[in-house]
UniProtKB/TrEMBL annotation:
The keyword Membrane does not apply. Belongs to the UreF family. Keywords: Chaperone, Cytoplasm, Nickel insertion. Its main location: cytoplasm. Pfam families: UreF (PF01730). InterPro entries: UreF, UreF_sf. It comes from Brachybacterium fresconis. Gene3D superfamilies: Urease accessory protein UreF. UreD, UreF and UreG form a complex that acts as a GTP-hydrolysis-dependent molecular chaperone, activating the urease apoprotein by helping to assemble the nickel containing metallocenter of UreC. The UreE protein probably delivers the nickel. The lineage of its organism: Bacteria, Bacillati, Actinomycetota, Actinomycetes, Micrococcales. The keyword Magnesium does not apply. Required for maturation of urease via the functional incorporation of the urease nickel metallocenter. It is found in: Cytoplasm. This is Urease accessory protein UreF.
Length: 241
């Protein structure tokens, strides 16, 4: 018998836990390409930042959210059926499809590092869910790891999609304060103004939860791939990406 989702973690608390940038899963060390975008002059102002965030959530953010929703659906199904043996292969198929949608080797490496760190953190934070997290595999790309963790905490596919979309916007928004001369309130205003779009995109991503992996979105953001590769060779860096 699998352990049920932790009774002492309510849905709201679980969402807050996973959405907290202080969660020791490595996200705070990344700027999601913003550092290089600033270095190259692509982002110079609050208006540029808002456009950067909007472009991110509507492209790679939506893709990641759809994969998170799909991972949550497969994890929840395996938990309900008490068939964790089927979980690893199902997630591995998702992982391969997401890799195929990520042209940049640097971004693939970062996504795997962050996914591994999230799973490791949650094994310590919610040990009762260890069997589910172990069955998922030691290394998954971050969006898929978010889907697994969301399911283990009793969150649904839409929650998983929303968390990943928020992370896609919040990571560079928070990094912007360290990287450019910008009012912290302005960066969070950018996030607040994206609230309706984030909600709509989460709903869209959730419609892919039960779909075949090859049917999931394949939107691209070429400048993000270019920025990630340039960042690897950048001499002075505050962030890992």
């Amino acid at each position: 018998m699998l352990a049920p989702p932790p009774s002492d973690i309510t849905r709201s608390a679980a969402l807050l836990l996973l959405g907290d940038g202080r969660l020791p899963a490595g996200g705070y060390a990344h700027s999601a390409g913003l550092e290089q975008a600033i270095a190259r002059g692509w982002v110079r102002s609050a208006e540029d930042l808002a456009a950067y965030l909007r472009g991110r959530i509507h492209t790679t953010g939506l893709v990641s959210a759809a994969f998170a929703a799909a991972a949550q659906h497969r994890t929840r199904t395996a938990m309900d059926d008490e068939d964790l043996a089927a979980l690893g292969p199902a997630l591995a198929e998702l992982d391969r499809e997401l890799v195929a949608r990520t042209p940049s080797p640097a971004l693939r490496r970062i996504a795997r590092d962050l996914g591994r760190m999230l799973l490791r953190a949650m094994r310590s934070i919610t040990p009762a869910q260890g069997p589910v997290l172990e069955a998922a595999g030691p290394v998954l790309q971050q969006p898929i790891a978010y889907g697994v963790v969301a399911a283990s905490l009793g969150l649904d596919a839409r929650d998983a999609a929303g968390l990943v979309l928020y992370e896609a916007a919040a990571t560079p928004a928070v990094a912007a304060v360290k990287l450019m001369s910008i009012d912290p309130f302005a960066t969070h205003r950018c996030l607040a103004e994206l609230a309706e779009e984030l909600d709509e995109l989460a709903a869209t991503a959730t419609t892919f939860a039960a779909r075949s992996p090859h049917e999931l979105p394949a939107l691209t953001a070429p400048l993000s791939d270019i920025a990630a590769e340039l960042h690897v060779h950048h001499d002075q860096r505050l962030f890992a990406s």
